[in-house]
Amino acid sequence: MRIFTTPRFQTAFDRVVEPLTLPGRVSSGAVPELTTVDQLVRGTAVIGRFIASPGLLGVKVRPTGRPVRVTAHFRYDSMSLDWWEERITTPGPVRGAGAPRLLLVRSQGKTRGAALLVRPAADFRRAATGVVCFDLQPEELTAEGLFVFEMDSIDKDRPEWAPAVPSGSVGIMMEAIEFAEVQGDREIGLVSTGTLPLDPDSGTLTLRAGYFVANPTGQDEPRRWIAGATLVEPLVPGPRTKVAPVVEPVESRPSTSGGIKRKVNRRIKRAARWVVPVAAAPAARRVSRRAAALERRVLRAARRRMRGRSAPWMSDAPPAPAPPTGPPPNPLADVMFDLVSRKLVRVELAGIEPGPTPGVQVRARAGAEIEIVTDGPLRTPALIRLSIDPSVLRELPGVDDKTVRWELVVQSES
């Protein structure tokens, strides 16, 4: 029995693609290692932008027989919004520059993590950056070395308190993908709050959408986070919110041709008064010298008077107290223990994919902080929402129309 195979013809013009060696980085859509793209427009300084949801790309990587750590960097900028507006014309309740993007990342047919991207409402021209980090086992990267990265939008089975635009991956820019051998535990990509990088002064990540994404660590142990609550002015003014008055610009009237002619004639007449005859030149020089000497005496007297005024004035009154340094006092710091004990601080956890999700426990800490601990490990990415009953906030002194802003402490997250 004979088995015939289809011959593969190769010419001298065909380029042999060499796989990417570890450690390696793909940061351009023109590199030969990027062998496959689907629903992705290649770039030059970046890998490219997705034009549909889902979209994927394939990179040829040389396997080493050891686990490989993959770190993907992507960005949500103003051009992402333009691309999304051009391709997604279906009307929906969530649109605009400040609408969140909830993204799901798959690789080699498995879900690897999720990311939340929210552009800042105060400065929506700034881009929101995201990162997803995961490990590949040696058997997941075959001898052919084809690594597949897929990005999709989480549009189904999403809780009502987690708003996001449909087809959120459209327009997202893939900046780079890094490949390296696994060394130690993962430190980035474990949580996603909509913003990166973290605040350098406090080491926190602000929850811009009121919830954050928690990705599994691959370890069989409970998860723990620490979040702090502060009061901020709402973006939408309330009935008692102080708003600065708007000053309308005053438009100046353009000058007419007649007014310009009158100004020119007036300046010509003023200049003609200073024309000195030739015979009076010596007298004019003497007058000018006297005027210059008088001007110098006046200037010297003015300088002496300014020096006398600039001398320090000694007062017998006690000095005014210095303003307090540091942030203003937080009204929630005194009542956080009471709110947690009365179960008025709510923490909701919802899994992104079907499967068991662990419960959560909330404990109060000093300084308006809470500690969130799960009953078991996370197997799939999860959405976690933090909230305080608004009716309770109105009863607190000094709250007025302010809203609660949650910040996740990254150093204490595991």
Describe this structure in words.
The two termini are 61 Å apart. With 414 residues, this protein is of the alpha+beta class. The radius of gyration is 34 Å and the shape is extended. It has five helices and 20 strands. Residues 1-7 and 236-255 have low confidence and may be disordered. The strands form four sheets. Strands 1, 3, 4, 6, 9 and 11 form a six-stranded antiparallel β-sheet that branches. It has a five-stranded antiparallel β-sheet with strand order 2-5-10-7-8, with no helix packed on it. The chain has two domains: 24-185, Jelly Rolls (Sandwich), CATH 2.60.120.260; 190-235 and 329-414.
Quick overview:
The chain is an alpha+beta fold.
What keywords describe this structure?
20 strands, single chain, six-stranded antiparallel sheet, 414 residues, disordered N terminus, 29% strand, alpha+beta, Jelly Rolls, 5 helices, 16% helix, five-stranded antiparallel sheet, 2 domains
Explain the layout of strands and helices:
Layout: E1 24-26, E2 34-38, E3 40-42, E4 48-50, E5 55-60, E6 68-76, H1 78-87, E7 101-107, E8 110-117, E9 128-136, E10 146-153, E11 173-181, E12 191-192, E13 204-206, E14 211-214, E15 224-232, H2 257-272, H3 281-309, H4 336-341, E16 345-351, E17 360-365, E18 369-374, E19 382-388, H5 390-393, E20 403-409
Antiparallel strand pairs: 1-11, 2-5, 3-4, 4-11, 5-10, 6-9, 6-11, 7-8, 7-10, 12-14, 13-20, 14-19, 15-18, 15-20, 16-19, 17-18
Point out poorly predicted stretches: 1-7, 236-255
Strand-residue proportion: 25-35%
**Mean pLDDT over the full residue set:** 78
What is the overall shape?
extended
Number of spatially distinct domains: 2
CATH classification, class level of the largest domain: Mainly Beta
What fraction, in percent, of the residue positions are helical?
Answer: 10-25%
Helix-strand topology string: EEEEEEHEEEEEEEEEHHHEEEEHE
| Rounded Rg | 34 Å
Note the main sheet: 6 strands, antiparallel
How many individual β-strands? Answer: 20
CATH architecture of the largest domain: Sandwich
Give the CA-CA distance, first to last residue: 61 Å
Please tally the helical runs, counting DSSP H or I stretches of 4 or more residues.
5
CATH superfamily of the largest domain: Galactose-binding domain-like
Region (Disordered): 305-328
Biased composition (Pro residues): 318-328
